[in-house]
Design brief:
Blueprint lengths: L9 H14 L12 H8 L3 H13 L3 E4 L3 E4 L33 H10 L5 H9 L15 H4 L3 H9 L2 H8 L9 H12 L10 E4 L2 H12 L5 E6 L3 H9 L3 E8 L2 E2 L1 H11 L3 E4 L13 H14 L2 E5 L13 H5 L4 E6 L11 E4 L2 H15 L4 H12 L2 H26 L3 E2 L7 E5 L4 H10 L5 E2 L12 E5 L6 H12 L2
Parallel strand pairs: 4-5, 4-7, 7-8, 8-9
Antiparallel strand pairs: 1-2, 3-10, 5-6, 9-10, 11-12, 12-14, 13-14
Amino acid sequence: MLTRTSTQSLTAQLADRLAERIRTRLLPPGARLPSVRECARQQGVSPYTVVAAYDQLLAQGLVEARRQKGFYVRDAAPANDGRSGSSGSSGNSGTGVEPSGVAGMPAAMAVQMMASRVPADASSLIRSMFHRPSDKPQPGMGVFPPDWMASTFMPTAVRRMTSTAALQELSLQYGEPSGDTSLRRSLSQKLVGINIPASPDQIVTTIGATHALDIVSRTLLRAGDPVMVEEPGWALEFARLEALGMRILPVPRRADGPDLEVMAQYCKLHQPKLFVSVSVLHNPTGYSLTPGSAHRVLQLANEHDFHIVEDDTYSHLAPEHATRLSALDGLRRTIYVSGFAKILAPNWRIGFLAAAPALKERLLETKLLATLTSPTLFERALSWCIDQGQLRRHSERVRIRLDGARGRAVKLAMSHGCTFASEPAGLFGWVDTGVDTDALTQRMLDQGYLLAPGSLFHARRPPSTMMRINFATSQDATFWKVFSKVRDGV
């Protein structure tokens, strides 16, 4: 909040706050700033203060004034948001599928939201992971709080790898292209536990799970290729595929799995090359795939000759018996991807993929062209954590703690007028707020809270009343009181 006790003037505080949001893309190019009167009301200052702050932003070249329309964030480059032509805008072409995100919403509300919303984008949420708006718990974050992942065994693992002899061995030469042998052996054994048959030779380590997904895309796809992606889905995946020039075909995600009728229609009309799926503890809904749906997806893949990349980022939070496409398929048409940032060490940046032997070699070539190898020191430290059972015990402790946090967060959300669109499970909840969450997100930033609005999780970013909450960071009763008050004013 702006404060009159600060050494900065109210004008400077407001200008600095808005400038930071613009630079971190929390206010993206093309976004309309609140009217002078509305901003003054929101911030509790005079209209003269707002005019002076907006003048500073104009002088810095961050915004532009449009006659009789207001102030808008300037485009850093010629407008081209990647959602026309051959990308997301053709996602529902010829399918008869109504774009999701506004279903069930009154028409008047949808029109008003389309006219006044400030759309969020994936880079905004990613940047916010590194520039937290305050020290308060952040319900929009996509990871556990650091204290949840803190352990004594991780420093021990690193110390074992940094003795003089070991440090020289691991630091003074490149590692193995496929990844450290000891880690690939450990991962192979770990995959056996979830019924995925992958030898160490079928595994390639990567710099996080996102890197693994990027390797798959760059190996199997070319610009303009159609790709099926579950919707709602992780915003970064939509943005990444758009940046590569792919045609995104959004597939509605249901409780039992992807909408099979939509998938079948896409297969007939567009001949997709790839299907991107989060089978277990889907982000943001928490859904998990059923065996019947999994078998039908694999049937479609065989009939229409496309690959499936299965993102199992949340495997550490899921039961071992959960249905996985890679287990049923035996890595014939599937590529399995996972990582450790969500459970253990985000900054170690270790992910991996597993694929059929012939395809693995193609994927390895793509990795070599981008990064040569990956850091052996942390890979070997992780191998020790897995082999000693430390990762398994740590994951169990986190799951138990998350179960308690989820129960508390659900009660708080529901007591403040929210409803859950899906049965709460895993790390995230998919919550209906009843108001436009793009507008709500901007208002909550003023209170020091980051939200993840529903539009981020759709390929075409339509207006939405949904938001994703992180159960680990949504247990604060103060947040929900502020949320309720701000929502009532939207």
